[in-house]
Design a protein that fits this description.
The chain is built from 35 helices and 10 strands. It is mainly alpha-helical.
Length: about 900
C-alpha cells in the first residue's frame, strides 16, 4: 500500500504539489486567524486536580489576590518611602482602563490612626514610655516646627548635658544625623532628615524602608506578555510621581504577572538567536546528508508545509496554544525532518543502483517504507500517551505533536516524492555509504561478549547514582535571576517579614480564626500568622487604655499654639547660639564629642552662608517634621476597630463576601528551601487539608507533574511495546529494540548526577521526547537487521540516522543557548539524552542483535520488498544474495 501511495504521488506529482500548496495556504490562513498563546500558567494543570480546585475556590473567595503586580518601593527614609507608595497608589487609581484594583497592604489612613493598636502589648508599652520621655522635645518641636525650633531643641539637649541631666553619648546619633543632613544642604545635594529614625533611636525595620503597592491589572492573555501594557503604565506613573534613583527611591515589580511577563520576554529575546542557529545548522546538516541542493530544498519545503498544516490542526483542536504546547514547532521540525532524511538518503542509495529516478523512488519506498511507518506509529503512541495526564500543558503538546507526526509521515510519502520527481536531482556517482565505519561492525560482532559485559558493568556501577539524583521542584530555580521580577522575589524571600512563600488557610467565619490560629501556631514549622484579627485585635481594650494614658500626657504638648515662622535673622541667631552651646559640651573623648564639634562647625558655616542655604536647610529638617507630629496626634486617638469599621479593601483582603476568613501562615527557616517548604506545606495541610498558596502549589504541582510523566512514560512504553510486538511478531526483536533505549535513559540520568544537573519541571520533558526519537532510530536498525543487512554502521542507514540525529539535536539543542535557565536545562538534557541514544543505537544495538539471521525476514507486509531489495548499497546486496 505504501509503495502504491508513493507511486501515485510520483505519477500525479503536479496534482499532489498543488493540493499540498492549497492545504498549506489554507492552513496558514487558519493558523493566522486562530493563533493565540494563552500565557496563563495556571491553565497548565488540569483544574480537576484537588489542589487546583482549592486554588480555584480561594481565587473565587478572594479574586483581588490573583493575577497581581507587586510594586516594591525602597527609599532612604521611612517617610520618603511611605510618601512614594502613597503617591503611586493615588496616581494609579485613576487609570481604570488598565488597573482593576490598587491598594496598600501596609499603609494608608487606617494604619496612620490605628498603628499603635496593632502593636503587641509589650511593644506598645515600650513605645509609649519612650514618647513620654521625649515629651519636652516633642512639645518644643510642635510649638516651633522650624529651623529655629530644631536649633532650640539641640540647645536644650546641650544644656541638659552641661547640667548633668543627660549624657553626651545619648546625643551622638542625633547630632551625627543632623550634621550629615546639613552638610548635604551646604554641598547642594538632596537632603531630608528622617524624624522617625531620629526619634526611634536609629532602629529601622526592613519594612520601614520598603513599602508595597498591590496592583491588579487588566490582562491580555492573547499577548505573549499579558501584563505588558499595564506594567509599562505603572513604570511611567512611578517616574511621573518622582520614584527615581535620582530622588533616592527605587521601584521594582514582581508578583505572578510580572514574573510571567519577564519569563516570556526572556524566551522571546532568545528566539531570534535560537531560530537563526537552528535553521542554519539544519540546512548545513541536510546538505551534508543529501549533497544535493534540490533534495535539500525538497525536504525543507515538505517540512515547512507540514509544519503549517500541523499548526492549523493544532489550533483547531485545542483552541489556543500554551507556553508548553507552543514547542510543537521544534518537535515537528526535529522529527519531521527525520522522516524526510530517511526517505531522501535511502533514495540516494537506491538512485546509485537504479537506472531511473522513478525506479529509485520505488525502491526507496520498498526499502524504508515499513520502518518509517513503524517509527511513525511508535512516535504517535509516545506523544498520545501524554493526552490523559493531568499536566495539561504537556497533554496538549502531545496531542498536537502526535497529529503532527501523522502529517509529517503522509507528507514524506506524498509531497516529498512528488517534489523529488519534479526537481529531478542528479544521479549518484558513488554508493552512499559511511565507509570510515566499515570496520566497526565486524569488531563489535567479534567482541560482542566484551561489549555486552562492558555495558552491563557500566550500568550496574552507575545504578546507585540514580537513587541520589535530586529533583528540583522549586519553579523559581528555572527562571533567570537577572530579570527584575525574579531578583526582587529572591530579595524579598530573604526576609521573613516580606517573604511571599506563605500558605493561606480558609476558615468558615471570623469566629473560627482563634481556634485555627492556635492550632497553626502549635506546628513546629510555623513562625507566625496574620488574619483579620491582626487588624482588630482581641485585646483592644487593654491597648486603648494604655494609649489613652499616654494621650493625656502628650496631647497638651503636641497641641501647643505654634509660634510665628522665624525670620532669617532669627535663624542665623539660633544657629550661632546652638553652635556655641555644642562647643561648650564638646570636651573629652566620649562618644558624641566628635559629632558635637563637627555639627558646631557646620552650623557656623550655615549661619554665614546665603539665605537660600538656610531655606534649603529648613526644608531638609522640617519637611517630615509636621507630618510626623500630625501622625503622632492621630495614633494617640484610635477608635475600637470591628469588622464594620475596617476599610473595605482591607476587610476584603481577609474576609470573603460569603463570610469565609483567610489566615496567612508564615514558615520557619529558609522559605526558599525545597525541604523547608515541603515540610511546612505537609504540616499545615495536616490540620487544614484545603490550604493553598505558593508552598502548597510548589509541592503539589511537583507530585502532579512527576505523576503525569510517570503515567505518560509507562503508557508510551506499553503502547510502543504492543505496537512493536504486533509488527515484529518476535519478542526478542522487540526486546532488542527497547532494551538499548532503556539503557540510554539510565545512562542519561547517571550522567545528570555526575554533571551536577538535577531533574526539574522543564528538563524532565526531554526524557519522553527522546524515548520517542530513540525508538525510531532503533526500529530502523532492527528492521535492517531482520532483512539480513551486514555492516550497518557503514551503510546509508547509519548516515541517515546520524544526520537525522544532528538535525533533531539542533532543533532541540539550540535551547541550550537560551538565557532562560529552565529552557537551557531542557536543551542540555535533550542533547545529553540524544548522545546516549546514538551510542546505544550505533554500538549497543549491533552487539545485542549479533550477526543477522541466516535467512532474511520474509514475514513482512505484502508489497514491502525490503527483504529482497538492496538496503545498503552493494555490500548489503551481496549479503542478501548469500
Amino acid at each position: 500500500m505504501i509503495d502504491r501511495l508513493v507511486a501515485f504521488s510520483v505519477r500525479r506529482r503536479w496534482a499532489i504539489i498543488v493540493v499540498a500548496a492549497l492545504l498549506t495556504a489554507a492552513g496558514g490562513g487558519i493558523a493566522a486567524h486562530l493563533f493565540r498563546i494563552n500565557t496563563d500558567v495556571e491553565r497548565l494543570i488540569d483544574p480537576k486536580e484537588p489542589w487546583r480546585q482549592d486554588e480555584v475556590a480561594f481565587e473565587k473567595a478572594f479574586p483581588q489576590r490573583s493575577n497581581v503586580v507587586v510594586a516594591v518601593i525602597d527609599g532612604r527614609t521611612p517617610e520618603e518611602t511611605e510618601e512614594a507608595a502613597s503617591k503611586l497608589t493615588d496616581a494609579l487609581a485613576v487609570h481604570k482602563n488598565l488597573i482593576e484594583t490598587v491598594y496598600r497592604p501596609d499603609g494608608g489612613p487606617f494604619f496612620d490612626k490605628n498603628g499603635f493598636l496593632l502593636m503587641s502589648q509589650p511593644e506598645l508599652e515600650k513605645t509609649t514610655e519612650e514618647l513620654i520621655q521625649q515629651q519636652g522635645l516633642l512639645g518644643s518641636l510642635a510649638q516651633d516646627p522650624s529651623l529655629r525650633g530644631v536649633m532650640r531643641v539641640l540647645s536644650m539637649g546641650a544644656g541638659g548635658v552641661k547640667s548633668g541631666d543627660a549624657k553626651i553619648e545619648d546625643l551622638d546619633r542625633p547630632l551625627g544625623k543632623i550634621d550629615g543632613t546639613l552638610k548635604k544642604v551646604l554641598a547642594g545635594e538632596p537632603a531630608r532628615l528622617s524624624w522617625q529614625q531620629l526619634l526611634g533611636g536609629g532602629e529601622t525595620r526592613s519594612t520601614d524602608l520598603r513599602k508595597f503597592v498591590m496592583i491588579q491589572p487588566l490582562l491580555d492573555f492573547n499577548a505573549l506578555q499579558p501584563g505588558y501594557t499595564a506594567t509599562k503604565l505603572i513604570r511611567n506613573v512611578a517616574k511621573d510621581v518622582g520614584i527615581t534613583e535620582a530622588n533616592g527611591l527605587r521601584m521594582r515589580l514582581t508578583g505572578p504577572v510580572a514574573v510571567a511577563d519577564d519569563e516570556f520576554a526572556t524566551l522571546s529575546d532568545d528566539a531570534l538567536v535560537n531560530n537563526s542557529v537552528t535553521v542554519g545548522a539544519i540546512v548545513l546538516f541536510l546538505w551534508l546528508a543529501l549533497r544535493s541542493p534540490r533534495l535539500v530544498v525538497a525536504v525543507i519545503i515538505t517540512t515547512f508545509c507540514g509544519l503549517v498544516v500541523t499548526a492549523a490542526l493544532g489550533l483547531v483542536m485545542v483552541g489556543e496554544l500554551n507556553p508548553i504546547s507552543v514547542a510543537f514547532a521544534a518537535l515537528f521540525v526535529g522529527l519531521g525532518i527525520d522522516f524526510g532524511i530517511q526517505f531522501a538518503v535511502r533514495y540516494r542509495a537506491d538512485r546509485y543502483e537504479q537506472p531511473t529516478l522513478e525506479a529509485a523512488l520505488g525502491a526507496a519506498t520498498r526499502g524504508v517504507g515499513w520502518s518509517l511507518t513503524l517509527a511513525a506509529v511508535s512516535l504517535l503512541a509516545g506523544f498520545f500517551a501524554f493526552i490523559p495526564t493531568a499536566f495539561r500543558g504537556v497533554s496538549e503538546l502531545g496531542l498536537i505533536a502526535g497529529v503532527g507526526m501523522i502529517v509529517a509521515y503522509l507528507f514524506s510519502l506524498t509531497l516529498l516524492p512528488a517534489l523529488i520527481a519534479v526537481m529531478k536531482p542528479k544521479g549518484e556517482k558513488a554508493a552512499v555509504e559511511t565507509t570510515w565505519l566499515a570496520g566497526v561492525d565486524p569488531w563489535i560482532i567479534r567482541n560482542r561478549k566484551a561489549v555486552l559485559l562492558g555495558v552491563a558493568l557500566v550500568t550496574l556501577a552507575g545504578a546507585p547514582l540514580l537513587w541520589k539524583l535530586p529533583f528540583d521542584s522549586n519553579p523559581m530555580h528555572l527562571r533567570s535571576t537577572k530579570v527584575e521580577s525574579i531578583s526582587t522575589y529572591l530579595d524579598l524571600i530573604k526576609d521573613p517579614a516580606t517573604s511571599p512563600n506563605v500558605i493561606d488557610v480558609i476558615v468558615p467565619s471570623v469566629a473560627d480564626i482563634p481556634e485555627m490560629t492556635k492550632r497553626l501556631l502549635a506546628l513546629p514549622t510555623v513562625s507566625g500568622t496574620n488574619s483579620v484579627d491582626t487588624y482588630m485585635p482581641r485585646d483592644q481594650d487593654q491597648k486603648l487604655a494604655t494609649i489613652a494614658e499616654t494621650a493625656e500626657l502628650l496631647d497638651q504638648v503636641l497641641n501647643l499654639p505654634k509660634k510665628p515662622a522665624p525670620t532669617d535673622a532669627e535663624n542665623v541667631a539660633a544657629l550661632k547660639e546652638t553652635a556655641k552651646a555644642l562647643r561648650g559640651i564638646a570636651t573629652g573623648d566620649k562618644p558624641g564629642v566628635a559629632n558635637a564639634k563637627a555639627l558646631a562647625g557646620t552650623l557656623d558655616t550655615l549661619a554665614a552662608a546665603p539665605e537660600a542655604k538656610r531655606k534649603a536647610a529648613t526644608t531638609a529638617l522640617v519637611t517630615d517634621l509636621d507630618p510626623m507630629l500630625a501622625r503622632l496626634r492621630g495614633l494617640l486617638h484610635p477608635q475600637k476597630v470591628n469588622l464594620d469599621s475596617l476599610p473595605a479593601k482591607l476587610r476584603a483582603e481577609w474576609v470573603a463576601k460569603d463570610g469565609q476568613a483567610r489566615i496567612e501562615v508564615h514558615p520557619k527557616g529558609n522559605s526558599n528551601d525545597d525541604e523547608v517548604l515541603r515540610a511546612f506545606a505537609k504540616e499545615v495541610q495536616s490540620i487544614a487539608p484545603h490550604a493553598t498558596g505558593a508552598p502548597v502549589a510548589t509541592t503539589s504541582s511537583s507530585y502532579t507533574i512527576l505523576g503525569a510523566f510517570v503515567q505518560a512514560g509507562l503508557t508510551a512504553f506499553v503502547l510502543i511495546f504492543i505496537i512493536l510486538s504486533v509488527a515484529l511478531r518476535k519478542p526478542w526483536d522487540v526486546a532488542m529494540t527497547l532494551g538499548p533505549l532503556v539503557l540510554a535513559t539510565l545512562w542519561t540520568l547517571m550522567a545528570l548526577y555526575i554533571l551536577g544537573m538535577p531533574l526539574n519541571f522543564a528538563n524532565i520533558i526531554a526524557l519522553p521526547l527522546m524515548l520517542a526519537v530513540g525508538v525510531a532510530f532503533h526500529i530502523y536498525y532492527v528492521i535492517a537487521w531482520r532483512a539480513g543487512v551486514t555492516d550497518m554502521l557503514a551503510s546509508s542507514l547509519t548516515r541517515a540516522i546520524f544526520f537525522s540525529a544532528l538535525t533533531t539535536g539542533t532543533a532541540f539543542g539550540s535551547l541550550v543557548l537560551s538565557s532562560h535557565p529552565g529552557t537551557a536545562s531542557m536543551g542540555k538534557l535533550l542533547a545529553l539524552s540524544l548522545f546516549f541514544t546514538l551510542v546505544a543505537a550505533f554500538f549497543v544495538v549491533p552487539a545485542f542483535l549479533g550477526p543477522p539471521p541466516a535467512k532474511p525476514d520474509a514475514d513482512r507486509p505484502e508489497g514491502d520488498a525490503a527483504a529482497n531489495d538492496p538496503l545498503i548499497g552493494k555490500k548489503a546486496e551481496e549479503a542478501l544474495a548469500k
